[in-house]
Design a protein that fits this description.
150 residues, alpha+beta, 2 helices
């Protein structure tokens, strides 16, 4: 068993989110300024499965994209550390989002985000989410690191 590069305790320190909206369980590899890998273990105990959909629970696509955005924020932090008490990474936009297969309880959602372009505090990222080696979703994300007082 390998030791995770960033475990859940550190993820909770880096992200401004709290349960139930922390959508990453572990970061397994980081190449600063290039790429990050990690995953989310999808469980039936997550609150959105009560209504999405009863009898056929499917992880909402917007939450898959949010998982990619959150791990992208960790990539930005790992590339150029900022004080998470003073700054936040805001999700600015999404392009080319496609959903290829449902994500259901019991799946492990493998996340990979890479840098397409970066200019000062604005990041353009490409994300893919896979389950068992099969593409579940993909998107391009735009985000920015900004002071918390804005």
């Amino acid at each position: 068993m390998t030791t995770p590069i960033i475990d859940i305790e550190r993820i909770l320190q880096l992200l401004p989110h709290a349960w139930p909206f922390v959508l990453i369980d572990r970061v397994t590899k980081v190449i600063p300024n290039e790429r990050i890998f990690g995953h989310k273990c999808v469980t039936m105990s997550e609150p959105w499965f009560q209504g999405h959909y009863p009898g056929r629970p499917i992880m909402p696509g917007v939450l898959i994209v949010e998982s990619l955005a959150q791990i992208g924020g960790i990539l930005a932090y790992a590339s150029e550390p900022f004080d998470s008490k003073d700054s936040l990474m805001y999700f600015l936009g999404i392009d080319k989002a496609k959903f290829r297969r449902p994500v259901i309880p019991g799946d492990r959602l493998d996340l990979e985000v890479s840098v397409i372009h970066r200019r000062t505090n604005v990041w353009k990222l490409r994300g893919v989410a896979m389950v068992d080696g099969n593409l579940a979703a993909q998107a391009e994300l735009l985000a920015s690191v900004v002071p918390r007082d804005r």
